[in-house]
Task: structure prediction
Amino acid sequence: MSTPDRRPFPLLAILGVVALLAVVGVVVAYQRGAPSPAAVVAQAPEAPEAAAPAAQGRTVKHVQGTSVVPLNPQRVVVFDLAALDILQALEVNVLGVAGDQFPHHLAPFADAKYPRMGTLFEPNYEALHAAKPDLIITGGRSSAKYASLSKIAPTVDLPMSGANYIDTVVANTELLASLFGKEEKGRALVADLRASIAKLKETTASRGKGLVVLVTGGRISAYGPGSRFGVLHGDFGVPVAVEGLNASLHGEVIGSEFIREKNPDWLFVIDRDAGMGQRGGAQQVLDNELVHQTTAWKNKQVVYLDPMTTYLIGGGIQSVNHLRGQIAEAYAARAQ
Result:
């Protein structure tokens, strides 16, 4: 009789030994403090959540798109003087600024405690990276750099419109106020501005027609409604002396003959060179026989506007209020 084949037994024995060793290994690992497989899974890095931006900030719409801005930004860098003007009015602290000219009420930002982040036209990217801002604000002269700056930190770009000047100033003020929890302060600033403008318009409407000119390098440009200085007509209510002027950024080039021909009752002058920190020459340019023949000159109604707030800062709520005050003072002086 043949002997039964017992070859499967060694295989079964080997498998049993392997299983036993595995159990022993787990026990030893546990005794040595090694993490269990469940613990390893729990310690794995968490993947970013798609909804995280909603929890960490708010989505803000602005002139160049949308940006997710952190709640209550603490490290704010500003590349626009109008925005800086508004932030100062709202009593918001900033980390860094751009440029080297800070006229009048913005003079505190010339202090070295506010690091320079470049110019209004060209950011210093090395300084920006070192500053680690959590919000960058652009506008006007710096708007062209929005795309590159938005790669460094959330960036909001503020518009400026000549056609709807005060409405734009108000919208920018309300936007910045909402970003920093300053809504109540923003509403008060806006209410004061609108009330003072309404009072001014009661005076300007019946006091004659006006022409706004900018003088630079001996040349004269005229600006009408819808232009960068159109606020005098569209919002302050000064009747227009010249219809159909080009509303381009640089205005319409004119000469003294043009001013004599149009004969404005009021001539509002912006000396750009003085606004840029250079020696101004607007008074010398306009002091000639042709301009002397105008009603504005004869009645001493040639008003040299503050070039710093009018030209350099532009759409800040404080600078606009300063411009309004200067116009109001000029009309009040001639009424006496």
Observations:
- The longest helix spans residues 8-31.
- Residues 310 and 323 are 7 Å apart (CA to CA).
- The mean pLDDT is 85.
